[in-house]
Amino acid sequence: MRNPIGWAALTLFSLVFFLFIYAPLLVIIGYSFNSNPVNMMIWEHFTFDWYRGLLGLGSRAADANNRAAYIESTDQMLRALRTSLTVAVVTTTISTLIGTATAIALARYRFAAKGFYNGFLMLPMMMPDIVLGIGLLIFFVTIGMNLSMLTIIIGHCTFLISYVFIIVQARIAGLDPALEEASADLGASEWVTLHKVLLPQLAPGILGGALLAFVISMDDLVITYFVAGTDNTTLPVFIFGMVRRGVKPEINAIATMMIAASIVIAALGLWLRARKTE
Amino acid sequence: MAIRRQTLVLATLLTPVTLFLGVFFLLPLLIIALFSFLTPGLYGGVEWAFYHWNYGRIFGWADDIIEVYEPIYLQILARSLGFAALTVLLCLLLCYPVAFWVSRLPNRWRMLFLFLITLPFFSSLIVRLYAWLLILKPSGILNTVLIGVGAISEPLEILYTPAAVVLGMVYVMVPFMFLPLYSAVDNLDRALIEASMDLGATRLQTFLKVVLPQTLPGILGGAVIVFIPSVGNFIVPDVLGGAKGLMIGNLVEQQFLSARNWPFGSALSMIVMAVVLAVLLGSTAAAKRKGGQNA
Prior knowledge:
Shape of chain A: globular
Distance between the termini of chain A: 33 Å
Mean pLDDT of chain A: 85
Strand order of the largest sheet of chain B: 1-2
CATH class of the domain at 74-246 in chain A: Mainly Alpha
Shape of chain B: globular
CATH class of chain B: Mainly Alpha
CATH architecture of chain B: Orthogonal Bundle
Strand content of chain A: under 5%
Oligomer: heterodimer
Number of domains of chain B: 1
């Protein structure tokens, strides 16, 4: 860089930018350890109470009423977490299967509607989630389908198939088709070539797509909000409800645990990518 | 035989996606279109009779006995477009210099900052928004600090204003702008910049004539990716916005979950869909024209 002052200004601006991105998360983490229950902005002293309360270890020597409230919200939170995980696992499986099949079909076969499919598969990612959410809600109600975990799973799959498709397609584009041709020339059937030659090479892409689908499914709020019905709540919808009802110190602890989980998942993704390139 | 075999495999691979998206993506969108022309029932349901007043309420033809035209709906639509455009602009102004900075860093540091910018993708949207609730509250950290250092004496009322909504949207959308911009900036041909400077162009001229045109596809891509989810957003205004920060997404949500007027809600979301399609078609056309020029 020819201009050291310009570079210094740019560096300062960029560091402020990263502070802007990370400071809010640090605020949550900090306050999740603050014992002041009335005004969490005023630091009282360090505590694990909110975590204990959430994990059902309620140590606050408060009245029985207070204890009951903690236990109820703990139960609800754990149930929401279980729903989120179940939905994410099933959704990831379905959308990975369908998305991968679609990517293979579009990359390895020639047919008339190919251009249409390529464009069409972009739409679920581009459609605002509120439109998709209410469309699914009207659809399920009109055909008389009860809102349940199944409707959440269907809702997530409608857009996650496209995400998996994109990732796997990018991977296929980098492969050498000669290997598959060799397999076919040597007498392997279509299925055997797919299974023994193409899929093993695609594995990192499929894994990457599945990881992305899992993360997005765990975090989806809007579509779930519309198609979950009253009995099923996922973690993001549960937190959204808590945020709407008013700020409670327990949210800081949940949020901190979620931030920690997301860092673990991101690091896992990075590690997978590093292994892939080795 | 081999050909038929191939067709069979292709059909097996494509049937699931065709059925799934046909039934659970295309049909729901068509049903929204259908519902937007149906009559709202008295107690929340619908009557299967043609009714164009859902759009009349929004765009201005209304028979006062049936539905009342309220300019507020168009105002909220305009506000949503304005907020989304402002979000795009602010994201761009924030990300452009930072993308340059990151692309010029030594390899190891570049990897670290690229990781830091992708990390928010993995963390929960609602958690990140909630953080701003903590910061902007009248008794929040921003006001506590500003009062503490004596900069202000009364808490600033930022929460539940349009400013809070735009701030929240910029915060959640900024990584989506960064990545396409970064890849455009990273692919810049630096020889062209040096040539421009050597030939006597000023920094501003070099930026306008060399850097900007080359990074335009990245700018356009980032703008579309940020604009579309911003227009229909209802979570950010719900958490951070008050009555003045209400967006069209909130209207849609109200019609479905509290007012129970599904046809009217459908008409409103048809407008969101129309805006999105217009932006997509417009940007595709723009990208094509740009590509045509280069060729």
